[in-house]
Amino acid sequence: MRFIFQTFLLCILQGIAIHVHAQLNPIGALYFQNQYLGNPAMAGRKGIDVNMGYRKQWSNMPGGPSTQIITGEYAFARNAGIGLNVSNETSGLFKSLRSVASYAYHMPLNENNTKLSFGLSLGFLNERLSREDINGDPNDIIVVNYNQKETYIDGDFGLAYTSNKLSVQAALPNIKGIFQRDLVNQSINHPTFFSAVSYKIDSENPGGISLEPKVVYRGIKGLNNILDIGANVSYANSKVNLFGMYHSIGSATFGLGMNYQSFGIIGIYSTNTTSLAAYSSGTFEIGLKASVFK
User: Fold this and answer.
1) Which domains does the chain have, with CATH numbers?
2) Which tens digit of pLDDT belongs to each residue from 30-52?
3) DSSP codes of every residue in 19-84
4) pTM of the model as a whole
């Protein structure tokens, strides 16, 4: 019984550290390639987009966290779009499944593709312990009680002002934390807000190099707010793009992507925060994208 309790407590502490680290370094694709991940107001702006991503953290540690994500967006009307965002995370014994559906309305402000967008996501969050991976009694009452937790109703809300060059965003992720004050929401493992500003500088030559600097300001409950500064460089009508972001917590994210017709692939690497750099490797991420009916 003592062994089970100690194992469970160790997993709880490890899970908290992993969730905090995951929020400190979010999915890298949300900065430029798949902005719907950070803001539901960015869903369904043009045609159909399908994105898949896989991220592996701390690859040199057994049971290191991994994340699988799939999103789909569809502009079903001129000024409206829908989306689906499904993510599955595992870290040691912990498994988390989050699925939300989104609706976004894009209100045109003028004839120069300037829009004010509103987005809302609603779905569920399910957290469980993997009983088959427990080194002990999987029927222990602590494990049973944890796995009998109710599934949370969860969602996100976002705003966005976009034009051909300027983009200004603000979002409230995981809005269940605003209305529910249980023990889970008192932890320090969830974001409180997301905001971003970017400006695209196109080349004067068709097919030349374009530059998009971006500043992101994020909040994490119980921790200092995080400032991300970087830029995306694209070439040959966005067939090749390279981006980098520096995070105020002492880490950085780099990505290289290639697009061919309606398909794209991107590889992303994030260094660890300053406090973790000496103990484990960084985070590897790969993403695939298909875009049709633009």
Assistant:
1) 2-292 (2.40.160.40)
2) 999 999 999 999 999 888 999 99
3) HHHHHHS--GGGTTT-GGGT-GGGSSSSSEEEEEEEEEE-TTSTT--EEEEEEEEEEEETTEEEEE
4) 0.83
